[in-house]
Amino acid sequence: MDHIVTVQEAVTAFADFMEPTDAELDAIEREMPVILAGVDLLDAQIIALNHAPNELDTRRIRRARRRVLAARRELANQAADTHRGGAA
User: Fold this and answer.
1) Which of 4, 19, 29, 64 is positioned for an S-S bond with 41, CB 3.0–4.6 A?
2) How far from 22 is each of 4, 27, 48, 83, CA to CA, in Å?
């Protein structure tokens, strides 16, 4: 008869002390516009997969890509602004 032995890391991987820190939650909140724009892009691509792509699908995907790029640009600009101050 084989005994089943648990690995301690697997058992405690989701313990209470492993919750995200406030800094990690803040980072997720800052990145949320990028995440949501990415979800919108994925939705547009999935819709286009369900049938033969048409002009509306092409425009929808193009707009979603632009929103992703704009959200990434905004996040990068915010990061650059926070690293910039105080050196003058």
Assistant:
1) 64
2) 37, 9, 38, 20
